[in-house]
Structures are given as C-alpha cells and as structure tokens.
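2024-03-11 09:14:02 DEBUG pipeline.ingest accepted 1 chain
2024-03-11 09:14:02 DEBUG pipeline.ingest length=195
2024-03-11 09:14:03 DEBUG pipeline.predict start
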Amino acid sequence: MRDEFLYEYEVEAHGWMTYEEDMRRRMREREDEKNRLIQNEVRRIQARREAEKAKERVMRERARLERAIIDAWNVYELRWVALSAAYDGIVLKFRDIPWPLLIPPLTPSEITPEGIGAFILSTAHSPEQSPKERIRAALLRWHPDRFCRVLGRVRESERNAVEEGVGIVVRCLNDLLTKDNRASHMSAHSESTAG
C-alpha cells in the first residue's frame, strides 16, 4: 500500500511539475511574444519618425531650392534691367550676360536645354504667367534681332562665345515652345474627341 501511495504521489508530483514547467514555458512564450510585439512597435515608431524626418528634409530642401530659383530669377531680371539701362560705352563679357540658368555659366557648353527649361518653366517664379507666356517673353528678349544691340557691346574676344550661347538659348526656347504647343494641341485634341 505504501508503494502504491508513493507511486500515486510520484505520478501526482510529476503531473504538477509538468504542469508548472508547461506554465513557465507558456509564460516565457507570452513574455517573448510581448517583447516581440514591443520591439515591432518600437521599430514601427522609429521608421515613422525616420520617414517624417526624411519628409521634413525633402520639404526643407525643396523650399531652399525654390528660394534659390526665386533669387536667381530676381537677379536675372535685375541684370536685364541693368543691361538695358547701361550706356553703350560699357564693354560686356560672357559672364555679364544674364543667362537663363540657375547657376550662371562660364562657357557656352554649360548652357543646357535642361537647365534653361528648369529655370524658365519653374513654378517658383512668375506664377501669374503660363509656361507659354514665360517662353515667349524669353524668346523676345533673346531674339537675335533684339540681342544684336547687346552683342555689339560684347568684348571682341568673347563675342563668339556669347553668340554661341545666345544660339543655344534661342534653340532651347524654340524647342520648349514647340513642345508646349504640341502639348496644348494634344490636350485640346483629346478633349474634343472625349466630348
């Protein structure tokens, strides 16, 4: 009987130990799951903060670029006014020409269609003008017949570089106008066929 009692006690003790181990295992699993959820939430919060910081950096950079474009546009306009008001005896150099670029070029090779398009078509300046109006105004300013008055004041040694630069600007502006006209035509055509 005693053996039977000991056997039952051992079975019951083993059952309790198994139960306690199972409970400890479950507690560890719950604790691990809780820690995993906390770590996931921390990573999610950190990722959201990083995304917000990146968005703020992009917005600050965009605002800085917009200010730079506005400043460059204002300088461009002021330089045209000064160029028009300067008396004919002033000798001009390549760098004195108010080129339609965010960063003034040192040579004609630095005058690119991308740079001219980005500068002239930027929405940061002249919001009251359509892109077509901006292009046309620039074409009037850069037209060879009108620009010849300025070209006559350019230092002889730099005249070819200025002529080359003016040619690049005019070609780029004409291309921009052609693209704008095509886009307007395509838009008007698609509206008429849709209606």
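2024-03-11 09:14:41 DEBUG pipeline.report DSSP finds five helices and no strands in the chain.
2024-03-11 09:14:41 DEBUG pipeline.predict end
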